[in-house]
Amino acid sequence: MLLEVDDLRVEFRLRDGVAHAVNGVSFQVEAGETLAVLGESGCGKSVTAQAVMGILDTPPGRIAGGRILFQGRDLLALKEEERRRLRGAGLAMIFQDALSALNPVMTVGAQLAEMFTVHRGMSRKDARGRAVELMDRVRIPAAAQRVRDYPHQFSGGMRQRVMIAMALALEPALVIADEPTTALDVTVQAQVMDLLAELQRSYAIGLILITHDLGVVADVADRIAVMYAGRIVESAPVHALYKSPAHPYTRGLLDSVPRLDRKGRELYAIKGLPPSLARIPSGCAFHPRCPLARDVCRTDRPPLYPVDERRGAACHFWRECLDG
Ligand code: SF4
Fold it and tell me: How many domains does the chain have?
């Protein structure tokens, strides 16, 4: 197994209490597999990614429990220096906002080349050659010239390609892409997602794709983990989840996506807002918004019930949800 996250808990100490941003999250990623982690803003998906990458803001954040095994190594037991060496070479991340993730006063070529001089001990000339190759690989036109340009001279889509090139430079085994296309126009989004999916397949990397957008995951993910209020509430192979969700929150998300076969019908909207992670409702955290909620939902927190050998749903009434 490439990555195993087991009962991960992350807390943030705030002035008015403790926010339980990640509250017992477990999942696995195999080599060459794409796992989409889906949920609304503030559900804990980006914090989970930061914990795996070892870039959590501490304090105020702190890992309160659990294990993260990467290729069998317990990441939480490693020294900071060992984790730093793993970043880029073993695990890499693609951020949502390429403009703030890239250094504005260095050319993109110099930033890419630095990966090879620092981590691989290459000469500056060879590293620059590799930078051009990489830019070509992510289909940046006229890469040999553009290698001398600064981040602000690239369009949003091209900058995101530079981010992808940087993430793949050292051929990591696992890449985490945190909302990689959110800041882009719809047509550019599709091109960047296609490129990411193609590179994921050709490099056979494990990919964790974090998104709030169900539309971007259908064609690229193998499995989906749906997060709500710091927990995974449904986990399933992508086609099974789209065909018949087993959690009312997943069903709500699917019903709120515009579909051509439902022309003329009003779009569904999940009522209310996600809860504050410092004040998570009792029982099932989704109960204030759930159309199927009953008394037991307000008091008893549902475990992740096994729906079949490959999927689970944290709902007392998952059978009812599955039957539609
Ligand atoms: Fe809704 Fe109850 Fe299921 Fe929670 S446990 S999702 S409130 S039906």
Answer: 1
- Assess if residue 210 is contained within a domain: no
146 lines ligand 1 (CB under 6 A): no
The reply to whether 267 falls in a domain is: yes
DSSP lists the bridge partners of residue 206 as 174
DSSP state of 276: P
Query: Is ligand 1 within 6 A of the CB of residue 3?
Result: no
| Cα of 242 from ligand 1 centre, angstroms | 19
For ligand 1, say whether the CB of 297 is within 6 Å of any of its atoms: yes
The domain of 319 spans 246-324
pTM over 0.70: yes
For each of the chain's 324 residues, which pLDDT tens digit applies? 999 999 999 999 988 789 999 999 999 999 999 999 999 888 999 999 999 999 998 888 999 999 999 999 999 999 999 998 898 889 999 988 888 889 999 999 999 999 999 989 999 999 999 999 999 989 899 999 999 999 999 998 899 899 999 999 999 999 999 988 877 788 888 888 888 888 898 888 999 999 988 877 888 899 999 999 999 999 999 999 999 999 999 999 998 877 666 666 677 888 889 998 989 999 999 999 999 999 999 999 999 999 999 999 999 999 999 887
Residue with CA closest to ligand 1 atom 3:
315
Is the residue at 313 inside a domain?
Answer: yes
Residue 208 β-bridge partners: 35, 176
SS3 assignment, position 247: coil
Whether 283 is in the pocket of ligand 1, judged by its Cβ within 6 Å, is no
Sheet holding 231-237, edge to edge: 91-94, 174-178, 206-211, 34-38, 223-228, 231-237, 311-313, 305-308
Cα(310) to centroid of ligand 1, in Å? 21
| Residue 262 located in a structural domain | yes
Of all atoms in ligand 1, which is nearest to the CA of residue 247? 6
